Amino acid sequence: MLIYIECDWFTERRVTFHEKLNIVVGDRANSNSIGKSTFLKIIDFVYGGDALITHGKDVHETLGHHSYIFQLRLDKDYIFERNTGAPTLLHVHQSDGSKLEVSISDYLDFLRFHYTKSIEHLSFRSVVSLVTRVWGRDNLDVMRPLHNFKQERGSQCIEWLIKVFKRFGPLEDMSIRKANLSEEQKSLNAAAKQSIIPKITKAKYIQNNEEITKYESRLDSIRNEISTLAISINELIDDAVLEQKVQKNQLLEIKMSISSELERVRANLEDNKSISKRSFQPLLEIIPSLNLDKLDSIESFHNGLTRILRKEIKEKEHELSEQLRFVDDQISACNAAMAKALKSSGNPAFIVDSVVDISLGLSKLNNENELYDKFTDLKKKIKELKDKLKEQKLVILSEIESRLNDDIERLVNFIYGEVRASPKLELKPEKYSYEIPRDTGTGKAYSNLILLDASLLRHIDIPFLVHDSLLFKNVENRAIENILRVYQSLNQQSFISLDGEIVESSSAKSLVEPCAVLYLNASKLLYTVDWRKDKDITSSN
Hints:
By secondary structure, the protein is α/β, with parallel strands linked by helices. It contains 17 helices and 13 strands. Strand 9 (424-427) and strand 10 form a beta hairpin.
């Protein structure tokens, strides 16, 4: 548990906490910018959050960067220090007065070990961030209470809920297999998009099968024709001949490419012609004021560039000619190698060429169809896993939904002292909804976030919650008193801020005073510096 927080800028230098409910008490006038929300952000800060940095910039901009020293009681007492100027580092205060530096990631691992290690698959911050509801954060949408930030997908919220309820185990293996298959599918699609591998349609797949049948029939015919020579196809087409044939085909493709480029280069050489001054004479008849000398000067400049380019083009022509000569030599070498390999067989070369061509064609078609089968099989397996995951998720979510809704209904009846319509959580594998009773206004609807969070802490090992005073707006005092009783009944620490009539209510006094850890008002601020005149005091703080 959190024992205390110290800061040299605090009006009360040290704030000490209770084991369960801790209340930051504002005033009846709902005074803003006195430090209520900021103090809750400091609690988030000591637990590794960054709301104080991202949503409380006015603090360190006014005070300068400063440190918060705090004590956690876990397996023993630990004293830490975190500075707003270096939030990625913390210092552990040792008993001998020295300080040990630790990174924020190591600190968060430490918190996870001591607070949330029973919740697998989630970091410490992932577990506690949602129920830290402070003004300025993105998790205050009453219609989307499981969204920790606006861009979060509904499926991510559902997965978080399954994990905090420790029900992800049965889904883990299927989720990993589905993710691996999806990654493989993604890689194959990327390779096909870059033309590294072929990707054919179903129609092409059927056509390929027909072609494969024809090729195999032709091979059978050739086998029959040469059977009298007692030479099998495997003996006739040895590895050396096949290799030379493949290489020759590749060289012929390269030769075609080089020849095409060489033709374009030579065409450019023929097109580079200069224009003489005499060629501009007809223009002079149409435009008497035309400056022939100027045009001739420009043309001379162009001719100079042309000479430079012509030289480069000639060099390119020579380079391509050499490449073409080299490729021709390689093709000749392939032909010679195949002739040598066939010389001793005494069989017609056209039979070998025919068989090689058929073999290469078959290889190409079989490769295309095998990849088609691979794509189809991947798609089928991913769909099967997706359907199984959905089916199991529905069972798990139905149980979680029932437990939470039943508990929220009990809380509503307890808080309001009568049977009332309660919010309903509906969970699906990819999304969720939180139906708010029709008679609930926007302000009062915030209290439904309290109901959900309290129910979550009653069911799972979330170590604490943080609720700002805006969640209590427009809620009648009697209901707030019962909400405070709910907080007190939790096994975890709760940190809340309260203001308005409730703080001076005689009936609430016995609930508020024993749990109050800090009193703030227009005359007593959180910090010793008052910068309210320099900012918009209509903001919540």
